[in-house]
Amino acid sequence: MKFKQFLKTRGAIAAIFMGIFYAIAMLGIFLPGYSAIPGNVDKLPIAIVNDDKGEYGAQIASQLEENLPFKNIETDLSNSQALKDLDKNDLALVVHIPETFSADMQKGEVSSSIDFTINEAGATTVSSTMNSVVTQINNQLSTQFSQQTAQGVLMNFNVPEDQAAELAKKIETAYTGNVVSINEIPDGMNNNMLPMFLTMAGYVGAMIGAMQLVAAFKASRGKASKTKLFLYVQSTALLIAVTSSLIALGITYLVNQPSGELFFGILGQQILNYLVCFNFTAILLFLVGEGGMILNLPILLFQTLANGATIPRDMMYLPYEWMSHISPMYYSVQAYFANMYGGISPSPYIWSMVAIGAAAMLINIVIVTFVHKHVPVEDQEAEVNVKNGAEITA
């Protein structure tokens, strides 16, 4: 066989196609998706809560509203409501100007502070971006208020040395920014990325499992009814889900050492994650066979950006945002963040996963019922024996 003949073989053609296809798919999905950072930072919603009735509070609130690089700034929320929205990741930052801010600044007896609250239990881009923004704000405000205090000092230039030292100290401590982090995540990227890694482990395993079990379903046609074979497929998926989830949690507790109280919650979600992802990825496999795997991989790549672990939904371009609404990975990642690190219930995300899984299973049932032709068991058994067990794609 010559090299040209080898290149014309089915395996060589498939390898060439896959190499080109996934180079295009990966770069075509990842590069545009990640270009949202930092370009779409201005889409992040924040809140400015001004409880100060003095002139300083109004001045600062107005300056922040005009100068901060965010298009969606809430100014009519109470501090408690803003913090609740922050806990749910509906806000990226809460700026709170306390009631005594102006009075403290005018007295100069104690340093005045503004609270900047950030939720760490969310997309990594949000917390890192907000910390950078807060640092810049604090530097500007510190300079501004120190200059204002210095003007007052200069008006009292001819003062004794001890009073001068005290006034100099006031300049240094005129303003301090108070950065508050809620739902802090333990140090280490392994902790920050754990929600995504657990989700990815379940999704990829389920996708490969779906390919194998759907192939087994088709190869077994004629040995049992379609209904019975479909139940076998789902039962096997459940068995794999439980086994793989226990192993996944064993590694998680060995490396990350989360709280023991979270064990059954994480285990239940990981099992659900596998089953939902299994039926989600099985749709194309039941519909078009092994060729469905070619489409499943780009859908997986899309979801690695649309799952909210790195980029929040507010910053995503429309195709990725649309995908996040039907993506089991998105709801799984958000549920893990809420369960392991957050201050809110993961239930809304869990129920969204259940809804996606139920819809996917229903679609698979419809495909198996109406698309796959009925093959009598006895006739198919005879055909299998004639073809010596060769795979039949009925």
The averaged pLDDT comes out at 86
State the end-to-end distance: 34 Å
Largest sheet: 5 strands, mixed
- Taken as a percent bin, the fraction of beta residues is 5-15%
**What is the N-to-C order of secondary-structure elements (H for helix, E for strand)?**
HHHEHEHEHEHHEHHHHHHHHH
Helix content: 55-70%
Q: Which structural class best describes the helix and strand composition?
A: alpha/beta
Give the C-alpha Rg: 29 Å
What is the topology, as strand order, of the major beta sheet?
2-1-3-4-5
Assembly level? single chain
Number of helices: 17
Description:
Helix 10 runs antiparallel to helix 13, helix 12 packs parallel to helix 16 (347-370) and helix 13 crosses helix 14. The protein is elongated and about 90 Å long. The chain has a five-stranded mixed β-sheet with strand order 2-1-3-4-5, with helices on both faces. It starts with a helix and ends in an 8-residue tail after the last helix. The model is unreliable at 150-157, 380-384 and 389-394 (pLDDT under 50). Strand 1 (46-50), helix 4 (55-67) and strand 2 form a beta-alpha-beta unit. It is built from 17 helices and five strands. With 394 residues, the protein is an alpha/beta fold.
Primary descriptors:
disordered C terminus, 394 residues, 17 helices
Brief summary:
The protein is α/β, with parallel strands linked by helices and about 400 residues long.
